[in-house]
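Hi W., the inosinic acid complex you wanted:
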Amino acid sequence: MKTLCFATHNLNKLAEIQLQMESICSIVGLKDIQCFEEIPETQDTIEGNAAQKAQYVLEQYGVPCFADDTGLEIDALQGRPGVYSARYAGPGCSPEDNMEKVLQEMSGIQERGAQFKTVLHLCLEKKTYVFTGIVRGKILEHKKGNKGFGYDPIFQPEGYTRTFAEMTMEEKNTLSHRGKATAQLIAFLKQHYSL
Ligand code: IMP
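Structure:
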């Protein structure tokens, strides 16, 4: 079976993808390739960060790999927090701080459209491939629900009356940005990188 590295230190993300790829190829994490360092993530776009991480691992460790990057893009804030989603309220901030900052910036604004975007960048030996998953929705005025993580309590996907934080993980995965990008990656690998 072919091996592919997922360039993340997040063990939950790794386990989730390993389960979905079981019959396609063997997914290993960074520590399996003896990579214990932080992977540089210094670009100013979501696409740039995903590419930087995947290319770094291929160049430094010589292993085919893919990397992801995700952000919440709010229309009325010109796409912010975007690539800065994890640390929008400053270094060391919590998800609560980030949501508070977004809610304050959105206070009094009627146009509340937003999207989550995940980019998966895959580096095989000589070629690279990019898969993008987007889910549209809106930013509520108050938090609702206590499941999920990050900005889930303030994001309500289009066509639903519940936020991501009011959905089970399975339900969220069927419609989420990450779920959509992963489905494309899996379909591609099934065709081009299995056995
Ligand atoms: P990452 O690139 O997956 O680490 O995501 C960057 C940041 O985006 C996270 O720290 C969260 O703040 C936010 N984020 C990513 N995915 C989600 C999601 O599914 N729900 C809510 N917030 C998310």
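Residues 69-72, 85-86, 95, 116, 148-152, 164, 176, 178 surround inosinic acid (CB under 6 Å).

W.
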